[in-house]
Amino acid sequence: MEHTRIKMSKQAEKYFNRLDNITQGRIREGIGGLLEEPPSGDIKQLRGEFKGLNRLQIGGFRIIYFTDGKLIKITNIFPRGDVYKRI
Predict the structure, then answer these.
(1) CB–CB of 29/40 below 8 Å?
(2) Phi-psi domain of 48 (left: phi exceeds 0; alpha: psi -120 through 50; beta: other)
(3) Mean pLDDT (the chain, rounded)
(4) Strand, helix or coil at 6?
(5) What integer pLDDT is reported at residue 80 of this predicted model?
(6) Which sequence spans correspond to the domains of the chain?
(7) Largest CA distance in the chain
(8) What is the mean pLDDT of residues 64-81?
């Protein structure tokens, strides 16, 4: 049985590594909730030009991702105010 994997884009990983340890821990914990069945967290499917992407809200941050079978690909991590301008 194959397990679900999480992969971060270089852009998301670069932003994640710049965050403080406490924030990284909160985001890591929230992303871990995506592995649960069903996924847990404040998740919404995006609409319009962003159709096919999902948004996970963790405090003031938004994690943009999509799923492809057993792969969860995190494309971006942004502060709340910037996310939809910069996708």
Answers:
(1) no
(2) left
(3) 89
(4) strand
(5) 85
(6) 5-78
(7) 40
(8) 91
Amino acid at 47: R
What backbone torsions phi and psi does residue 52 show, to the nearest 5 degrees? 100, -15
Q: How far apart are CA 61 and CA 55, in angstroms?
A: 10
Cα gap 55→34, rounded to integer Å: 11
Cα 32 to Cα 28, 55, 56, distances in angstroms: 6, 14, 11
Q: Does domain 5-78 have CATH number 3.30.2310.20?
A: yes
Strands 61-68 and 54-58: antiparallel
Give first-to-last CA distance, the chain, whole Å. Answer: 34
CA-CA distance, 41 to 23, in Å (whole number)? 16
Q: Which residues contact 22 (CB under 8 A, 6 or more apart)?
A: none
